[in-house]
Amino acid sequence: MNMQMNPQVDSANDSTQVQPVIEARDLNLVFGAGDTSVQALKDINLNINKGEFVSFIGPSGCGKTTFLRCIAALETPTGGSLAVNGMTPEQARLNRAYGYVFQAAGLYPWRTIAKNIKLPLEIMGFSRAEQDRRVAEVLELVELSGFGGKFPWQLSGGMQQRASIARALAFDADLLLMDEPFGALDEIVRDHLNEQLLKLWARTDKTIGFVTHSIPEAVYLSTKIVVMSPRPGRIHEVIESPLPKERPLDIRDTPEFIEIAHRVREGLRAGHGDD
Ligand SMILES: Nc1ncnc2c1ncn2[C@@H]1O[C@H](COP(=O)(O)OP(=O)(O)OP(=O)(O)O)[C@@H](O)[C@H]1O
């Protein structure tokens, strides 16, 4: 397989104005009103550029999922602005600007893997031939070629999650939003899927927003780590990773990796202190 690495775009040195994929300015979201209201996001300012792999890490309830859901136009911010590819999140959703992978694989048990992947394509009116072509392509990307005819229950948890990623890739959107996709899997399977996801990212040059509770996972995968703090959900710190794009698993034993993991841990601790 020809694994072409895409040249890293160094946005800091790029003098031309490149439009960010995600641009959040003073973004706020308050659920409800009065005494029972919850400020889920407070003054979020963040740019995500094309090809970045951005992880969101923070304690439970700090707004990670809510931020992803705002990008996907599944929640409406109560203040500030949010642009996805220069559009409103609603426009971006209509343009199929992103694929979304949820915590649980969420596959229909009565449909085969191929038919699960096809479902959104059927709804969008893609031709049968195009549906078949895309299913074969995304199954290959997640290394599940040959499993299209199986039902979800015939696959392991890790394979189901890969099938769910394949479904999110089927529209070939440049942006992939992933909400703790590997949280429920054991560590060895998770390591393997992390490796595969990095390869997929390198092959496709997609922009990825990824929610996790795991410091090693965030550091291993990301070019940028957004450390969030709770009540109300804010960005405590954004850590740019100096690690190379090509990352074997044993990079986790290097001093550079351990140093970034340490910074993330310190950020999480300090963020708790912001309470
Ligand atoms: N629909 C809703 N109505 C009211 N409050 C909500 C709603 N959705 C989320 N919240 C609250 O907003 C805050 C942020 O929730 P969110 O799910 O984004 O956090 P999170 O960081 O993703 O948490 P976790 O790590 O547990 O998934 C929490 O206090 C949560 O209870």
From TrEMBL:
Pfam families: ABC_tran (PF00005). GO terms for molecular function: ATP binding; ATP hydrolysis activity. InterPro entries: AAA+_ATPase (IPR003593), ABC_transporter-like_ATP-bd (IPR003439), ABC_transporter-like_CS (IPR017871), ABC_transporter_ATP-bind (IPR050166), P-loop_NTPase (IPR027417). Its EC number is 3.6.3.-. It is an enzyme of class 3 (hydrolase). Coiled coil: none annotated. The keyword Transport applies. Belongs to the ABC transporter superfamily. This is Aliphatic sulfonates import ATP-binding protein SsuB. It comes from Tritonibacter horizontis.
